[in-house]
Amino acid sequence: MLDAAASGSLWLKDPEIAGIVDRTIRRGAEIAHYVLRAYVIMPNHVHLLLEPCVLLHKLTGGIKGVSAHNANAKLGRTGSPFWQDESFDHWIRNPGQFARTKAYIEDNPVKAHLCARPEDWSWSSAKK
After folding, report:
1. pLDDT per residue over 101-114, tens digit each?
2. CA pseudo-torsion sign 74, 75, 78, 79
3. What was the pLDDT predicted at 1?
4. Residues 6, 12: Cα–Cα separation, whole Å
5. Closest C-alpha among 28, 84, 90 to residue 53
6. Are 90 and 102 in contact (CB under 8 A)?
7. Are strands 34-41 and 46-52 parallel, antiparallel or unpaired?
8. I want to staple 3 with a disulfide (CB 3.0 to 4.6 A). Which of 35, 45, 84, 112 is the partner?
9. How far apart are CA 102 and CA 124, in angstroms?
């Protein structure tokens, strides 16, 4: 349901807001909070595949905090919640699971009929 963008706020559909989130995700990797392996920014949610270099709650808090602050400022929603409180994390235990998870993440826009191929979606590691 989320992948089809049928529910939830669609702020990430706005290219400026998606760009804010994209830059925040890539910046976290640049400053060595994590090794970014794959990501996709969908119209109403984000998937990340990464190797954390800091505690997970600090990492997700940083991504959510910085991107929410900047996106809300752009949207004129300062002080309002942008992200849901919860996050869903999973451990990747072997190369096969890694490959399946990466493909799942990058195929999200295709499954949601937002593009024909993963590399056609602007807000994804498949494009980069």
Report:
1. 999 999 999 999 99
2. negative
3. 44
4. 13
5. 28
6. no
7. antiparallel
8. 112
9. 11
What are the residue ranges spanned by the domains of the chain? Answer: 11-120
Contacts by residues 98-101 (CB-CB < 8 Å, ≥ 24 positions apart)? 98/37, 98/49, 101/38, 101/49
Q: Tell me which residues of the chain have a pLDDT lower than 70.
A: 1-8, 128
Q: Which residues pair with 50 in a beta bridge?
A: 36
Question: Among positive and negative, which fits the CA dihedral 118, 120, 121, 123?
Answer: positive
**Alpha-carbon distance 36 to 14, whole Å?**
23
Token pair recorded at residue 57 = 């709650």
CATH of domain 11-120: 3.30.70.1290
| Distance (Å, whole) CA 125 – CA 60 | 18
Residues facing residue 48 across a β-bridge: 39
